[in-house]
Amino acid sequence: MLLVLFGSFVFAGAVHAEHHEVARTARSADAQLYFISPEAGATVQNPVVVRFGLSGMGVAPAGVPSPNTGHHHLVIDAELPPSGVPVPADANHVHFGKGQTETSLELAPGKHTLQLLLGDHGHVPHDPPLASERITITVAD
Known about the structure:
By secondary structure, this protein is mostly beta strands. Helices cover 12% and strands 35% of the residues. It has one domain: Immunoglobulins (Immunoglobulin-like), CATH 2.60.40.10. Strands 2, 4, 5, 6, 8 and 9 form a 6-stranded mixed beta sheet that branches.
């Protein structure tokens, strides 16, 4: 019985830690995040070149706290992560912590969704979060 209770306690702690909110950085009220390319609905070839647009704020590398700045995260075929925790780093959440404003991707043929999310120096979405429109593209065979 103790082993089961202990196992449940550890699992509950892991779930809690996963959703532990951290301090969030304010953002400019008039900031906008958008795709320069590709356009929504576009049919593209590999490699897919994605260019990020940002107005009303600046771009700074991760780890560099500076007012009204952030760095890009590209969300591929996934929903936006919770806003009070750092953006995960996986195949669906690509970090551009060096301040990059474009990338070249290899995506499987077919439909894909793309969305940009700005993160602060600690990879946490701003308060309120700054995200682009979610677009759908098709990668040709």
